[in-house]
Design brief:
Blueprint (H helix, E strand, L loop, with lengths): L4 H13 L2 H8 L3 H15 L4 E3 L4 E3 L1 H22 L10 E5 L1 H11 L1 H5 L4 E5 L2 H9 L5 E4 L9 E14 L1 H4 L8 H4 L5 E2 L5 H11 L9 E2 L3 H9 L4 E5 H10 L3 E4 L6 E8 L1 H4 L2 H14 L3
Parallel strand pairs: 3-4, 3-5, 7-8
Antiparallel strand pairs: 1-2, 5-11, 6-9, 6-10, 6-11
Helix pairs in contact: 1-2, 1-3, 1-4, 2-3
Keywords: DNA-binding, Transcription, Transcription regulation
Organism: Micromonospora thermarum
Pfam families: HTH_1, LysR_substrate
Length: 294
């Protein structure tokens, strides 16, 4: 049985994205073209490869088996065809992640490769959007606070965020030691979202109680939250990578230092077709090495 590489590439793109539309976008083809290629491939192998759903497709057992067998050879072939031995970074790398972490850690860590000729495009986004953009090929790599569950994406731990309850020194002077949830009722709370997920997790983990208050100030950027807290607006829970310098300078103080501070793992995610490219591998290695010192 002879099957063209184009049919297999279209099949693999649909398998990885979970939809014909996503596969077509990944390949830069029209949706009817990909639909026709899938039909031709199913006729060639003599069995259905996908179950058509109201939204997207789900692979059959035969589809999963075919993907397992052809993914690595096709990815390697595409990698070899794209390589230019004279170029250390043959293609642009598209990277996404949380805006604050990109600004504070990721982009500075990649200054060296950029100075050496890497072309990099960086986009901020939330976990669900980042996973979508990885699956459809708009991103090559993403730093995400939630491990993506999308088929075809690979993830590895990058960095454990540690969180601290912080405020300007004047607020600490008004509070008892140790700080209690009831005492904190007198302190305005600053959050980046109306639901205050970081604050609520801190209360649940450290104080073993629910936070029942709504924030006094909501601003949709952790750097703006930091600025408000430094200026004396109240207290917030922030990742230490964002406020370490302010704690060291005395502009902020930690209101409580729990024996086991809440942590949140950030993951580095990629899609197999991009993972083998030299420039993507270079970005991955650079970030993993830098994260060891964060």
């Amino acid at each position: 049985m002879k099957v063209s590489l184009d049919l297999l590439r279209s099949f693999l793109a649909v398998h990885r994205t979970g939809s014909v539309t996503g596969g077509a976008q990944l390949l830069g083809l029209a949706q009817p073209t990909v639909t026709a290629q899938l039909r031709a491939l199913e006729e060639a192998v003599g069995r259905p490869l996908f179950e058509r759903l109201p939204r997207g497709v789900a692979p059959t057992a035969a589809g999963d088996e075919l993907a397992r067998r052809v993914a690595e050879p096709l990815d390697r072939l595409d990698e070899v065809l794209a390589e230019d031995p004279a170029e250390p970074y043959p293609r642009t790398v598209f990277l996404g992640g949380p805006a604050e972490f990109l600004a504070e850690r990721v982009v500075p860590a990649l200054a060296g490769p950029v100075a050496d000729g890497l072309e990099l495009r960086v986009t901020a986004g939330l976990p669900e959007r980042l996973a979508d953009d990885l699956a459809t090929g708009r991103l090559d790599l993403a730093v995400t606070s939630v491990r993506p569950r999308r088929r075809g994406l690979t993830t590895e731990p990058l960095y454990d965020e540690e969180f601290a309850l912080v405020a300007a020194p004047a607020w600490r002077d008004r509070l008892p030691t140790p700080v209690t949830p009831s005492a904190l009722r007198e302190v305005p709370l600053v959050a980046y979202a109306e639901e205050a997920p970081i604050l609520r997790r801190w209360w649940r983990t450290v104080f073993d109680t629910r936070l029942t208050r709504t924030p006094n100030l909501v601003v949709a950027d952790l750097r703006a939250v930091l600025g408000a807290v430094v200026a004396g607006a109240g207290a917030s829970v922030l990742p230490t990578y964002l406020c370490d310098r302010h704690l060291a300078s005395g502009e902020l103080v930690a209101l409580l230092r729990p024996a086991v501070p809440p942590l949140n793992t950030l993951f580095l995610a990629t899609r197999p077709p991009a993972a083998g490219r030299r420039e993507v591998q270079a970005v991955r290695r650079t970030l993993l090495a830098a994260a060891a010192g964060w």
